[in-house]
Amino acid sequence: MTLIVETVFDLDALLTDEERAWRDKARAFATESILPVAEVDFENKHFRRELIGGLAAQGFLGMHIKGYGCAGAGAVSYGLVCHEIEAADSGWRTFVSVQGSLAMSAIAKHGSEEQKQEWLPRMAAGEAIGCFALTEPQGGSDPAAMTATARRDGDDWVIDGAKRWIGLASIADLAIVWAKDEEGVVRGFIVPTQTSGFEATPIAGKWAMRSSIQCDIRLDGVRVPASAQLPNARGLSAPFACLNEARFGIVWGAMGAARSCLEAAVQRSRTREVFGAPIGSRQLVQAKLADMFVEYEKGMLTAVHLGRLKERGALTPAQISVGKLNSVREALEIAHTSRALLAGDGITDEFPVMRHAANLEAVRTYEGTDEIHQLVIGRELTGLGAFA
């Protein structure tokens, strides 16, 4: 399936055959399995768990990890999958990110060989669902102020605290929980969600990510054995390494939502007639479409560049911040402009634009707000921190 936006700017020329194959496979799955139910699931706040098996069968879960039943795909291939999934719905790209870029990456990067063997093949197959419990109720932008604690008690660890906005927690089989030990060092733990004292409650009243699951977590004397600790996770650099994997996916995914909105606006501009002609024949409308298209392509070129850097092992956190800040900010602007061009029909579920705009508001907040990424970039430019 060739999209309108692909006929103007030849992005395919920058991709390998393998990357295009991953892209096409993800587009087919998103078109056939997610899009037909996206609007009704958003309306009904329904998480369609039966889609997980399909995502796993396509090899999308933890696809950037090598071995352990994972595909070992390149960074650009992974990005293209995120792009296509989010073009259908941000909630399902979020699922892919939480499962693969956060929970599975935490085990792959920081876990023991035994932990990798136990969990990663099951998670890649969609047989075990993971969540990543880092953000706390008082604010997600300052993880150094974490209040969750982990103390030694004999051969065990006992974890207490609270987490908020934790994706998938109420359906997860395991949680990657981050807490400070008695010395104030941040550590990571694999906590089976059936452990006594672990309670996850879905957050109600959301106007974004309505077909996705985010939860409050209460940790009340959660006791896990020493073998539950991620042995190579010490300090905030450990969860941040996982967050950077997820942020990389967002760079691509947000542009997928933008593409969906832009496609809707272009198609509608050809068929909606006002004052005796299609609105697409009007100069102001063409100017808006052109500006949206240029920002979309700039975002995609940035994503490809970051992907190539990642494949060389040269991608920095500041560069990821550039991509995340730009992609989400421009995707929201494209969604808003597309809504305006669709006029009154733009607020209905006949078009995906309002759903994408609402979801992108959540994407703008998680994995670092605009302001946090601006400060990351500012520190890189000046050498001066301005977070406090």
TrEMBL record:
UniProt KW keywords: FAD, Flavoprotein, Oxidoreductase, Transit peptide
GO molecular function: fatty-acyl-CoA binding; flavin adenine dinucleotide binding; glutaryl-CoA dehydrogenase activity
Enzyme's top EC category: oxidoreductase
Cofactor(s) this protein requires: FAD
Classification via SUPFAM superfamilies: Acyl-CoA dehydrogenase C-terminal domain-like, Acyl-CoA dehydrogenase NM domain-like
Pathway of action: Amino-acid metabolism; tryptophan metabolism; Amino-acid metabolism; lysine degradation
EC number of the protein: 1.3.8.6
PROSITE patterns: ACYL_COA_DH_1
Gene Ontology BP terms: fatty acid beta-oxidation using acyl-CoA dehydrogenase; fatty-acyl-CoA biosynthetic process
Domain Acyl-CoA dehydrogenase/oxidase N-terminal stretches: 16-127
Domain Acyl-CoA oxidase/dehydrogenase middle as annotated: residue spans: 131-222
Presence of the UniProt keyword ATP-binding in the record: no
Entry keyword Oxidoreductase: yes
A Pfam family it matches: Acyl-CoA_dh_1
Ranges for domain Acyl-CoA dehydrogenase/oxidase C-terminal: 234-381
Catalytic activity: glutaryl-CoA + oxidized [electron-transfer flavoprotein] + 2 H(+) = (2E)-butenoyl-CoA + reduced [electron-transfer flavoprotein] + CO2
UniProt record similarity statement: Belongs to the acyl-CoA dehydrogenase family.
Annotated protein name in UniProt: glutaryl-CoA dehydrogenase (ETF)
Species lineage: Bacteria, Bacillati, Actinomycetota, Actinomycetes, Micrococcales
